[in-house]
Amino acid sequence: MEEGICCTTYGDQAYRFTDIANVNFGPFKPVEMSDKETLNRLFSAVNPQISDLTFSNLIMWRHMINIHVAWFGGFACLLAIPREYPPYVYAPIGDMSGDRAGFAGAVWETVEFFRANGWQPRFRCVPIDAAPALTGLFEACECEEDRDFFDYVYLSDDLIKLGGKKYDGKRNHIKRFKKLDDYEYVKLTPDRIDDCIRIMYDRCAENDCDCLRGNDYACDRKPSSELLEHFSDLDCTGALIKVGNHFEAFTIGEALNRDTAVIYIEKGNTAVPGIYTYINQQFVEREWSGMTYINREEDEGVPGLRKAKLSYHPVKLIEKYTITCK
Fold first, then answer.
1. Whether 278 contacts 172, CB under 8 Å
2. Range(s) within the chain of domains with CATH label 3.40.630.30
3. Tens digits of per-residue pLDDT, 247-267?
4. Termini Cα distance of the chain
5. Which of 20, 135, 220, 294 has the most other CB atoms within 10 Å of its CB?
6. How far apart are CA 218 and CA 204, in angstroms?
7. Is residue 260 classed as helix, strand or coil in its secondary structure?
8. Beta strands per DSSP E along 269-319
9. Strands 75-80 and 68-72
10. Among 2.40.240.20, 3.30.1360.60, 3.40.630.30, 3.40.50.970, what is the CATH number of 7-149?
C-alpha cells in the first residue's frame, strides 16, 4: 500500500502516514554526511545527554524516519517524519541559555513550518533542561513524559566489574561463556563489516523477521546497516566476538559527551550462552573504561528489552518529553 494511504493508531486517533512526496520542506533538507562537521560542532557545544543527539545516530536513522535539518540563526532544527508517529522536531540545538531570542526564533520558525504543512506542531525527545524553555513559549501546550524513550545510563565501573549480589546472574553468564574452548575479542575494522552484516542477517533469519520479506520497518536491520556502511567516516568504535572460526557477536558505540559513551548496536548469536553479557562487559572494559557513564539508549516500550536493560541496574534514566503545541 502506498505512503499516505495506510493508517495506524496514535493516541486515541487514527493517524494517516505522511506522504513524503507532498511535503513542502522549505528550509529543511535531508541530513547528509557533509553535515557532519557543522552538527558535531553544535553537539559538542551543548554536551548532549540524550542518545538521539549524535551525528552517527542521525545517519543511522535518517532514511528510516526521514530526518531533515534546517538552520535558523545559530540553531539546528532536526525534523523527523516516521511512519508510526506524526511528524515532529527535536528542540533547537544551539546556545539555548546564551541566545534565548535565537532559540525562540528557531522554535517559531519550526512551528510555522508545521502549520504550513497542515501538521500540529510537535517536539519530541525533548531533554529535561529544554522542556521549560519550550513550554514557556506557548500559551497552550501539552508536555508529556515519553517513558518508552528514556535513556538507560549505567556506571561504566558497574558494567566492567559486575560486582555484588545484584550482578550474580551476569557473572554466571560470563562464566558459562568462558567455558568455550576458543573465543576472541576482535576490534571492528572496515574489512570486518561484512561479518557484522552476516550476524544481523542470521539473527533476523532465526526470528523469521519480516525484514527478510521486504518490510524495512520490521526491525532495526536497515538503520544498523546504514551505520555499518558509513562506519569508516563516523566517529564510532566497534568490536566483534569470534568463537572458533566464526564471528558470533558485534557491538558499536561512540562518545556521546565528555563523560558518557553511547552504545548503538549489540547483536549476537543467542545460541552461544553468555555471549551478550560477555561482549557488553568486554566492550566497556576495553574501549570505554575512561568514561564515567554508559548510555544504552531506550527500550521503546518493548517489555523484554525493558527487563533486560533494568537487569543491569541503571544509575539513572535520562528523561525525554513530547511537547505538543495547541
1. no
2. 7-149, 152-297
3. 999 999 999 999 999 999 999
4. 31
5. 294
6. 10
7. strand
8. 293-295, 316-318
9. antiparallel
10. 3.40.630.30
Closest CA to 150 of 305, 254, 290: 305
By the 8 A CB rule, do 62 and 91 touch? no
CA-nearest of 46, 35, 38, 36 to 95 is: 46
Pick the closest to residue 218 from 227, 206, 226, 208 (CA basis).
208
Helix axes 168-178, 275-287, angle to 10 degrees: 100
Cell 561504566: give the residue: 156
CATH class of 152-297: alpha beta
Give the pLDDT confidence of 184-205 residue by residue, as tens digits: 999 999 999 999 999 999 999 9
Separation CA 187–CA 303 (nearest Å): 31
pLDDT 10s digits, 57-72: 999 999 999 999 999 9
Q: How far is CA 286 from the centre of its chain?
A: 22
Give the integer Cα–Cα distance in Å for 293 and 284: 10
> Whole-model pTM?
0.93
Q: Which residue has the cell 560542532?
A: 41
